[in-house]
Amino acid sequence: MQWRIGDVTVTKVVELEMTGGTKFLLPQATKEAIQPIAWLRPHFADADGRLIMSIHSFVVETPTRRIVVDTCLGNDKQQRRIPHWNERQGPFLEDLTKAGFPPDSIDTVLCTHLHVDHVGWNTMLRDGKWVPTFPKAQYVMGRAEWEHWSTLRTREDMQHILDDSVRPILDAGLATLVETDHVLCDEVSLVPTLGHTPGHVSVRIASRGEEALITGDFMHHPCQIAHPDWATLADSDAEAGIATRRRMFAALADRPVLVIGTHFAGATAGRLVRDGDGYRLDA
Questions:
Q1: Does domain 2-282 have CATH number 1.20.120.140?
Q2: What does 82-150 look like in DSSP terms, one character per residue?
Q3: Helices 143-151 and 156-165 meet at what angle, rounded to 10?
Q4: Would you tell me how many other CB atoms lie within 10 Å of the CB of residue 213?
Q5: Whole-number pLDDT of residue 251
Q6: Which of 198, 156, 206, 205 lies closest to 217, judged by CA?
Q7: Backbone angles phi, psi at 257, to 5 degrees
Q8: 87 contacts 237 by C-beta, under 8 angstroms
Q9: In the chain, at which end, N or C, are there fewer CB atoms within 10 A of the end residue's CB?
């Protein structure tokens, strides 16, 4: 799946799609609550009201850069909270290469935040050692993100993630720690969307008068467009996340901005429009 924003092309490369089983993330999104939201079907929910979600990367090609935004789960990773995320053996790298993006061709990796499903392919296992998957890339990560998670001692799972997917990048000298409003190039910049994590960012793309926003996880699923007060159990600061969604939805509504969802399945992208007292996504 691919979109064009002026001189920029965005390509989606999927690692994993799933239907249902999301109660651990969005407990308020019961089948009964989802079924009345008709616009979620067929891309984002099935007829029974089960959520459809995706874990994927975006490759953003500008006239001067080739950027991978978020790197999914990765293969061979251990000690993950979700059982089927452990020791995966998926074809993501092959699929990335088939799409025209071999790892050596990537010059920038951008992580919207440092959760497990956004940093996994930062590294790959080679001869028993975690090495950078994209050896010619500079890995752009949030300074606030790194400082928060690297000093937090109450989340053992996050320390495993940092050890196999983030610290090897710093050790290789490939990491660039940036602020939440960093500008990567003329067409691509970061937008602070805090709440899900302390340094979470979204990615603004602007070229030739056209604009898009890659969400990251300030919303995980389009049902949160209808219900911005639905916080996920993975949010560091649920109230801040709710405030961010309300602010962003008000800013995006009825504007010609292509909203590209980091976990949105199916059509994945659309325009945010007002819908009575709330909002919907026209995919």
A1: no
A2: SGGGTT----HHHHHHHTT--GGG--EEE-SS-SHHHHGGGEEEETTEEEESSTT-EEEEEHHHHHHHH
A3: 130
A4: 23
A5: 96
A6: 198
A7: -110, 125
A8: no
A9: N
Residues of the chain scoring pLDDT < 50: none
Q: For residue 273, which amino acid is it?
A: V
Burial of 167 (0-12, 13-18, 19+ CB in 10 A): middle
CA distance linking residue 200 with residue 203, whole number of Å: 10
Which tokens is 86 given?
């452990």
Distances (CA, A) of 112 to 141, 216, 244: 7, 6, 15
**pLDDT score for 154:** 84
Q: Is the pTM of this model over 0.90?
A: yes
Burial 5-41 (b: 16+ CB within 10 A, else e): bbebbbbbbbbbeeeeebeebbeebeeeebbebebbe
DSSP 206-271: EETTEEEEE-TTSSSSTHHHH-TT---TT-SSHHHHHHHHHHHHHHHTTSSEEEE-TTB-TT-EEE
State whether residue 201 is helix, strand or coil.
strand
- Give the CA distances from residue 142 to residues 145, 162, 233, in Å, rounded to whole numbers and listed in that order: 5, 13, 22
- State the pLDDT at residue 34: 96
Return the CA Rg of the chain: 18
In tens, the pLDDT along 169-185 reads 999 999 999 999 999 99
124-143: string of b/e by CB count within 10 Å (b at 16+)? beeeeebebbbeebbbbbbe
The per-residue pLDDT for 87 is 94
98, two tokens? 């088939």
Residue that the structure tokens 């998926």 belong to: 90
Residue 52 pLDDT: 96
* Digit-coded pLDDT (tens) for 186-231: 999 999 999 999 999 999 999 999 999 999 999 999 999 999 999 9
H or E segment and range at residue 3: strand 2-5
